[in-house]
Structures are given as C-alpha cells and as structure tokens.
Amino acid sequence: MEFSTFGKRYARRTGARELMDDLGAAMASEADVMMLGGGNPAHIPEIQALLADRLRALSNDARELRRMLGDYASPAGELQFRQSLATLLRSTYGWPLDADNIALTSGSQSGFFQLFNLLAGQFDDGSTRRILFPLTPEYAGYNDLGISNDMFVARQPSIEQLGGRLFKYHVDFDNLVIDNSIAALCVSRPCNPTGNVLTDAEMQGLGELARAHGVPLIVDSAYGLPFPQIVFRDCEPYWDDNVILTMSLSKLGLPAVRNGIVIARPEIIDALAGMNAVISLAVGSVGAVLMRELVDSGDVIDISRKVIRPYYESRMRAALESVHSSLKGRNYFVHRPEGAFFLWLWLPDLPISSAELYQRLKARDVIVLPGEHFFPGLGEDWPHKRQCLRLSYAQDAAAVERGIAALGEELHALGA
Predict the structure, then answer these.
(1) What backbone phi and psi angles, to 5 degrees, belong to 96?
(2) Residue 366: which pLDDT band, with cuts at 50, 70 and 90?
(3) CA 246 to CA 264: how far, in whole Å?
(4) Distance CA 164, CA 335 (A)
(5) Which one of 138, 254, 288, 403 has the lowest number of neighbouring Cβ atoms within 10 Å?
(6) CA dihedral for 246, 252, 256, 257, sign (positive or negative)
(7) Exposure string for 148-169, b = 16+ CB within 10 A, e = fewer
(8) Half-sphere exposure of residue 170, counting CA atoms within 13 Å on the CB side?
(9) Where do the DSSP E strands lie in 123-241?
C-alpha cells in the first residue's frame, strides 16, 4: 500500500518506536529481561496503594465516576482539575494562573507534537521557523515530532569534568545564537536522558534570551517540579508569561492514563484546545479526576517530596554504585545524576557505536538505549553521540544490577 508523505514519515522506524517496542516486549515477556531502557516509572508500593484507594473511592461516587468515564470534558481538559492545579500553583509559587492558563493533552508526547507544530514549521509568508534546543543531548522523543523536515536545531554543550568519574553538561551561552529562524527554545529539566538539572542561573539566562528575541521558552518538567519532584539537587521551578511549562501525570505512576499538562499564556492554551477538539474531540479525564483531590489538597506535592523523590534517589545511588563496581578499570564517565531516573554513560574508548553495543546487550536480554537517538537537531558529526548510553534504574533493582554487570562484561570483551 502506498502511504502519503505524512503517513510515510510516521510509519517509519524511529527512536521512539524502538524505545516503546523494546519496552512493550520486555514488559510482556516471560523471559528474565533486564529492562534498563524504557521510560516506564517504577511501581512504588505506596503510590500503587494510594491509587487503588482513590479508585475505590471514585467507584462509589456516581457523580465523580461519570466525570471520569461517562462525560466528555472541554477541549482544554477537565475543568475542575485545571482549576485545582491553578490554585495550587498560585498558592505554592505565586504564579498568576487560572484555568485559562492550563490545557491537558493526551500525554506529553502528543502535547509536544501539538506545541512544536503550532509554533514552528512553514508560515504563510513562505518562511520556515525551528525549535532550538540550547543543550544537547535531549529527549529522543522530540526527534520525529515535526510534520516538516528540519524543524529542530541544537547546540553542543560545554562539558565540566568532575571528580569520581562524573561530568556535567552546561549551556554554552557563548555559542548560543538566536536568529529570526528560531520559533522557540526548548529544554527538559530534569533532562531525559542525562539526569541533568539546569541551574537556576542557566534557566534565568535562557528566559532572558528568549524574551529578548520575542520567542517562548518551553520547559519540559515531566520529572520535575512541582510534581513528581524527581530532582536530587536544590533548584527552583521556572515560569513566567513567556514560558510554556509542560508537566505529566506519567511519572507520578500513571503512564497508562496518558495525561500531559501545559501551562502557558491563554492564547496558547486556546490554540491547544482547538487542536484537541479536532484531533480527539476531548482529552481523557481518567487521570485528571483520579488526581484532582490530591492536587486540590496539595498532597500531590507532599507525596512527591516524601515518597517519590526519596525512592528514586535511593535507587540512583544503588545503580551508580553498581556502575562504579562493574566498570572498574574501564574508561567511563557518568553524568552527575541530578534528577529523573536515568544514568547517562559516556564511554570515550568505545570501539563500536553505542547502537552496536545496544544490539550486543539486547542479545543478552539487557535493554538499554543507545546515545545516537538523543541528539535531536544536532546536524554535525560529533563522535560523542556514538559514545553514550542511557540506563534506567526505575525497574527491578536486582535486574538493574545484573544488567550493569553484563554491560561491564561487554566493555571488557571490547577492550573499552
């Protein structure tokens, strides 16, 4: 069958497809798969119990059950949830928000598809504008979201070498050029894949640059503040009326409900609502109704701080210890893990590409993500792209330890 140009673009093999195929196969497999590759959050017992309690309570409330399952929400998403979230953000951070500043999307991935194509691409005057990633590596899922070619451009980072086999990426402001071809800046904080948390000073600098050039700054906070707070260093959330802040319910433990959150100026929210209406009539309300009471009370922030963050921080420390133990004697560096639930390995002496290493590990039932996918918009041939791996430590702790040990064995065999 002959597909359209649009159809061919989204039916082809992509990094996102590879990631999700591996994740789905691993989750469904009866084999002892060591899943270090996906973005699925951990099944934290306290969170699972909390969600079960909420479902039981809602099943006995006919009105709430109808809102969750039986009625369409508005195109911008379930109104009571948006009102509760606006109130929470006003009271916690002093941000001047109401429900008109918030839209829900069918997951963050869909939300970014809408945002990127709303702001960038072809314009009526024949010009083309692009999304600028001021810092790479960045989220692999951004790669294929543009409906036009060359929608993204990126800048290499500066690299700070730290002690203890650690390093950190920083925005290279000296080489950050913003011209009339740029429609918006975009960063993830914490960063998927590296666990990097941009400093408050870096966020301030990016915000000032974006405003000076009349473009918005998009901040992907799927792992960050105010929830789920998978952040292991002190930092402040960043929002003003030139910022488009995106959040998610996925990393709270609800990836299957597919609810993304966008916080922005009302005209952007209104445009997203229009897109929702055309694409899906309305956004699903399951996650919004399930979580509204926790948002309304502010408990979602307490749970994030007291349960979710400590859980992942403990898992991070164990995974980092495994890396140092299993890769002893190898030439490796780990990006300082400051948030999210990934370790980002840099292997300068790797004699094969990280994509080939991924295949070797996959043959041993160890699933990782090769670094090549995580440089959207970076056209230049930077060898660093082929020397990195992303490891998730969110799944079974023993499997993560065995997977890292297998990685060490492969590197030893390769002489890397």
Answers:
(1) -80, 80
(2) very high
(3) 9
(4) 11
(5) 254
(6) negative
(7) eeebbbbbbbeeeeeeebebbb
(8) 15
(9) 128-133, 152-154, 158-161, 166-170, 182-188, 217-220
Please work out, in degrees rounded to the nearest 5, the angle formed at the alpha carbon of residue 290 by the alpha carbons of 58 and 238. Answer: 160
Using alpha carbons, select from 323, 404, 307, 374 the residue that is nearest to residue 41: 307
What class, spelled out in words, does domain 71-297 have in CATH? alpha beta
Q: Residue 56 and residue 197: Cα distance in Å, rounded?
A: 37
Cα–Cα distance measured from residue 289 to residue 280, given in angstroms and rounded to the nearest whole number? 18
- Provide Rg for the chain, Cα atoms: 21
Instruction: Taking each helix axis as running N to C, give the angle between helix 79-93 and helix 286-297, from 0 to 180 degrees, rounded to the nearest 10.
Output: 30
- Mean pLDDT, residues 296-308 taken together: 97
Q: List strand residue ranges (DSSP E) for 189-259, in order.
A: 217-220, 243-248
Q: Where exactly are the structural domains of the chain?
A: 5-47+303-414, 71-297
278 burial level (CB within 10 Å; 0-12, 13-18, 19+) = exposed
pTM over 0.85: yes
DSSP state of 213: T
Q: Do domains 5-47+303-414 and 71-297 have the same CATH topology?
A: no
Of 292, 320, 303, 332, residue with least CA distance to 397:
320
Q: How far apart are CA 81 and CA 61, in angstroms?
A: 17
The residue type at 73? A
> Tens digits of per-residue pLDDT, 12-60?
777 677 666 766 666 666 668 899 988 899 999 999 999 999 999 999 9
**Token pair 């829900």: residue:** 104
Amino acid at 2: E
Q: How distant, in Å, are the alpha carbons of 5, 131, 142, 180, 298 from that of 128?
A: 19, 11, 18, 10, 43
Q: Does domain 5-47+303-414 have CATH number 3.90.1150.10?
A: yes
Q: For residues 247 and 233, what is the distance between their CA atoms, to the nearest angstrom?
A: 19
Buried b (16+ CB within 10 A) or exposed e, 18-45: bbbebbeebeeeeeebbbbbbbbbbebe
Contact 72, 282 (CB under 8 A): yes
CA dist 397 and 290 (Å) reads 29
Q: How far apart are CA 221 and CA 237, in angstroms?
A: 9
- What whole-number distance in Å separates Cα of residue 312 and Cα of residue 368? 18
Q: What is the pLDDT of residues 288-301, one digit of tens each?
A: 999 999 999 999 99
